[in-house]
């Protein structure tokens, strides 16, 4: 049952470099991967690739030791993996790791769909991501380091559940980026449940706090796109989204997303030179590499002018006026 109506608030992170004693909840991590976690390391389904885990752990350890993080869990994502598993279900490419309780969970997650514009096609197919960027408006995934931040909950409209019209409020977990991901706020990058409301009509609900000036609220079909594509955000199933939100509410943690721009460029160079990735010390999911041929990173300096030009060419949209529901 969808109950995304709770409005959450997360305290500001504060200065990451501020000196603070290490909390008991986030015990010091050994540089060596513990044996219970090693069994989850690999390139098979449900496993986390070594480079993804190593970088995710290093980011988390750095933030814990710097006093910026107290959460006992950290997050990671491998955006090179396919959307579907060998059984046909959603592929597992997002990871929730809590070393203090020896907990590892691999779940599905969406990645950026990109765009196909007259001046450039940087769109991604549903199964494997080929294009990546940190350009605002690109709708693409950007690998690198993030911190979970506050949440925002917004009203999307009404849908029918168990024969009744009920409201759908979707909670959005914002990410703060570092380095190449430093414009995460500008891009409105974060995580949320993989659902949206496809509007059909509107009905009169003057007593609803979400009604417009005329007393109407939108109504539509609730669409679930778990494991599919997004506008660049990280998207999860309803159950996973609830779990993650409960873990980071008021208790931010780190998120590391693979691949970064350097990884993408290095893999593309190796593919162009017909050099095996293993011999170059590089990683990309083999299934997706076979599907896409070669990945590409689009710099914001390249894409932003193209996106701005496309936006400027669009006509003024006509005011949206939904028909009255029957």
From TrEMBL:
Keywords: Signal. This is L,D-transpeptidase catalytic domain. The keyword Signal applies. The keyword Signal applies. It comes from the Bacteria. Residues 1-26 form the signal peptide. It comes from [Roseibacterium] beibuensis.
